[in-house]
Amino acid sequence: MSSLLSFTILGLFTGAAYAIAASGLVLTYTTTRVFNIAHGAFGMVMAFTFWDFSQRQGMPTWLALVLVLGVVAPGTGWFIQRYVTRGLGEGPVSVALVVTVGLFVGCIGLAQQIWPPAARTVPPFFPASGLQVGGTYVTAHQVITIVLSAVVALLLYLLLNRTRIGTAMRASVDNPDLLKLFGGKPQQVASLSWAIGTSLAALAGILLVPIIGLDYYALTLLVINAYAAAMLGRLKSLPLTFVGAMGLGILQSFAVAYLPSQGALSGIRAVVPALFLFGVIVLMPQAQLRIGQVKGIVSAPLPSTTQALGWGSGLVLLAMALAAGMSQANLLLVGTAATYAMVMLSLVLLTGYGGHVSLAQFTFAGVGALAYAKLDQPNLYGLLLSALIAAAVGALVALPVLRLTGLYLALSTLAFGVLMDKMIFQADYAFGYNGTLHADRLSILGASISSTGAYVVVMVAFFVLMGLALLLLRRGALGRLLIAMRDSPQACGTLGLDLRWWRVGLFGASAGMAGLAGALFAGLRGTIGAADFQFFNSLPLLLLAVVFGVTSVTGAALGGVGLMLLPVLQSSNPSAAGAIFAVIGFGAVALGRDPNGLSNLLFGLGRRLDARLGLGDLRDRLPLGGRRTGRRTTGEVHAHVAS
Q1: Which residue spans within 59-167 are E strands per DSSP?
Q2: Which of 96, 457, 500, 572 has the fewest CB atoms within 10 Å, i.e. the most exposed one?
Q3: What is the pLDDT of residues 495-506, one digit of tens each?
């Protein structure tokens, strides 16, 4: 009985911290319709700031708290809303997700750069105080956290439902133009919401630090567990959010206490929040479509078939030249870049063409690699079967959330990535007791490709074939349908199209492409392990795809090279490793509203050269009106679908 009480109190403490973080998340979403993936990352940065003020600079604890919660955190929230997320709630959900994921990665890089890895501790509040409850000792820090969570929930409820400012906050998201007519100021209201929300993330991070320590990833990912509580409250109900957070904390504590630490059920202990999140998303009511929004994204210009074949052949020839003169180590890097580029091609299909965001795309690559190694058929049949297995897994992920779109679909992939990472990839039956699996090189029509150089050329050829297939799809009726689905699901719905099964097929095809890349990567490396496919790697993958252009094959190729160079630059410049991460994250923030990314600069340069040479504007000769630079109208969307 004493043990049960101890774990209940521990669960209430953890749930209270989740409730504080989730309340801030609900507040920012309720008033701006922007789901802040970086909410936990902000809490992590503020926790480090609190340590800096209180421990390194020697400020009194109360003064450090006042500065962080009253100045630094709200100022950061105000700045982010004013200059980064302003207007994101009115645009496509995919853009808001990419921008906040960029903030997520950027905050981690910034923290690593300012506070390099070292042992740091933050003492709990009133460490010598506490009280005895039955046979369990409850610390003052735990009591303060539980009380603060209830106070925060009550104050936020009163703010939103009993004050003029709260009424303005709720009105600003429903109809900001109407609020202006009544003398309201929507932007100031939104800035206030983000200031309060960031302060609550900081408070949650500070309360958790004495328990889990100052760790970049542990703090960030632990606060992500608050997403599940926010989802239970449907991102608008503070009482349900509070109940969900407390329930999740107790459930997680009991799982650690009573589930076995070895065997098949041992992995559940680490994934209780992810299971909770996935279950809430599946069981929650259908998300409503946004009415009255037909906003297209200007896509990258499509090359002609001749040009695509020419550039593809040139890329294969370049790979052959590199294979002839590069060392073994450098060839492995080129093959890794080709793998990343192929996975990014799957994002071109899913995000660039379909408008959906996956936060676990590298997990699907891991499924393909694991299937390839387990099948032990290093030939085209084994490669195809591995891709089909990954495609089936992708379709299965989309099936439970068939009714949901946008944010909920993306969060379901995040939960899936965590589940696969903790329960499958790290299990003994997956990569074995030593954590690695052997995979043979691919053979084509009985001819084994043992040379690393030749294998890299084959990988580049697969990338070219996948890119040509994507361009062919984009030119056809199916490609126009995908663009119409991305630009306006409402318009497609009025034409009687059932987008749900299209979405399942799109997820399956995208996962299959990633799985094919993972299988080829397994053959390249020879041995693969769970560490090669951690779900966190999917975040920089998505960001670099956006930075270089998630709507074009060129962007995927450049993004693959960029992602391959990332660890190389970090290892060669350890002191700048955090800065490199920060540049990628904040670069995605800057370019997140333009999914064509840096590849657009190359396209613009090509057009200028084309004009100087007197060959005319390339886009005038493209199908689908490549010269257009504005948003599509409703009539154009209907025309795309009808054709």
Answers
A1: 130-133, 136-139
A2: 572
A3: 666 677 788 889
